[in-house]
Specification:
It is built from 10 helices and 2 strands; from the N terminus they run αααββααααααα. It is mainly alpha-helical. It is elongated and about 60 Å long. GO terms for molecular function: DNA binding; DNA-binding transcription factor activity.
Length: 246
């Protein structure tokens, strides 16, 4: 694999770690190292670039900060994606901007209603257990007074996973919790009672979706997801029109 790299040895005038990181990023983007593959070892990279292990480690840290790679003890450093995380679609979403929230919800309605139907048809008992665990995590976050955006996202991602369609799962994985609305919009603009009421409604809708998937009720699951997202869409649409959240 090392022989496939088009690497320039780093000169003394260069910022060593940044130069190494930039070249590795280019190699990843070009497909010289595929997603899931491991980078060469530290020693191999030292020989390639003509730098010390300290420089290589600093360069790897820079790649980690971009979300391109991850390092596991005893395994090595593997490629996670071919683009820096902040250039991905999810990182361009402002979860506090009404226009972004409405656009994302329009997309989610079209994708997740079908995903929920497929999940009900194809889910395994293990996937039901995972959905139940994510529902419980959402509940626990609410009990701590949190907005539970991460837990909300993970519940919906688990539904896409249960479709057994790898492309649906990968499509949703490119997002992060930014795909879940509320954040500062709910936290700062709205009264706490409105926030709590909204989150409790989200909880009850999640429970309905979970039960439909658990019972293999495909049509019910599809409708429950549509209602869940459509209600959120109209809620934020009314907020945009009237600056009132109810």
């Amino acid at each position: 694999m090392v022989n496939r790299f088009q690497i320039e040895r780093v000169g003394k005038s260069d910022s060593l770690a940044s130069n190494v990181a930039k070249q590795l990023e280019q190699q990843i983007a070009a497909g010289a190292i595929a997603v899931g593959d491991k980078l060469p070892t530290e020693n191999e990279l030292c020989d390639l670039f003509g730098v010390s292990r300290t420089v290589i480690r600093e360069a790897i840290t820079q790649l980690k900060s971009l979300g391109l790679v991850e390092t596991k003890r005893g395994v090595g450093t593997s490629v996670l994606r071919t683009q820096a995380a902040e250039t991905l679609f999810a990182y361009q979403i402002d979860p506090t901007a009404i226009d972004d929230i409405l656009h994302i919800l329009e997309m989610r309605i079209s994708v997740e209603t079908t995903a929920c139907e497929l999940a009900a048809l194809r889910r395994t008992e293990e996937e039901v257990a995972l959905l139940e665990a994510h529902f419980q995590a959402f509940d626990e976050a609410l009990s701590r007074g949190e907005l539970a955006r991460k837990e909300d996202y993970e519940f919906h991602l688990a539904i896409c996973t249960a479709t057994r369609n790898p492309f649906l799962k990968q499509f949703y994985e490119q997002f992060n919790k930014n795909v879940i609305p509320r954040a500062n919009l709910v936290n700062s603009d709205l009264k706490q009672v409105a926030t709590d009421s909204y989150l409790q409604r989200v909880r009850s809708e999640h429970l309905e979706i979970l039960n439909c998937i658990k019972n293999k009720d495909a049509e019910g699951a599809k409708q429950a997801m549509h209602n869940h997202l459509y209600r959120a869409y109209h809620l934020y649409q009314r907020y945009q029109d009237n600056n009132k959240f109810d």
